[in-house]
Amino acid sequence: GFHEAVGDVIAQSVVTPKHMVKIGLLPESAQKEDSEVDLNFLMSQALSKVAFLPYGYLIDVWRWNVFRGNISSNYYNCEWWKLRSEVQGVQPPNIRSEEHFDPGAKYHIPANVPYIR
């Protein structure tokens, strides 16, 4: 909710190259106006935030489908990996079955915490 947004804003402000130089975690050379430094910082931010969006989305799609009764409890894991494949293009590292419950490895599933609010 709101507290997470405030936390994200604060976290974003303290990881900028300018702030990192100020507290001594980066050398002065990182503070100069350099497009390469800016590009590297922006790429780092994109990889940590944007790359996560498909996964966050599929977690809630899976949850909504369970709540709506669109997924039988006999197929929870199968549907999880079907969504992972469709949305992210990833496959399980080894053969998975309904004896496994891979969605439960993500805190938000057993704790009933939605990503999309």
UniProtKB/TrEMBL annotation:
Cofactor, free-text remark: Binds 1 zinc ion per subunit.
Gene Ontology biological-process entries: proteolysis
Class in the EC hierarchy, top level: hydrolase
Keyword terms, alphabetized: Carboxypeptidase, Disulfide bond, Glycoprotein, Hydrolase, Metal-binding, Metalloprotease, Protease, Signal, Zinc
Stored InterPro entries: Peptidase_M2 (IPR001548)
UniProt KW Disulfide bond keyword: yes
GO CC aspect terms: plasma membrane
GO molecular function: carboxypeptidase activity; metal ion binding; metallopeptidase activity; peptidyl-dipeptidase activity
PROSITE patterns, sorted: PEPTIDASE_M2
Stretches that traverse the bilayer: none
Residues where chloride binds: 117
EC number(s) stated in the UniProt entry for this protein: 3.4.-.-
Cofactor annotation: Zn(2+)
Residues where Zn(2+) 1 binds: 4
Family: Belongs to the peptidase M2 family.
Name of the molecule in the record: Angiotensin-converting enzyme
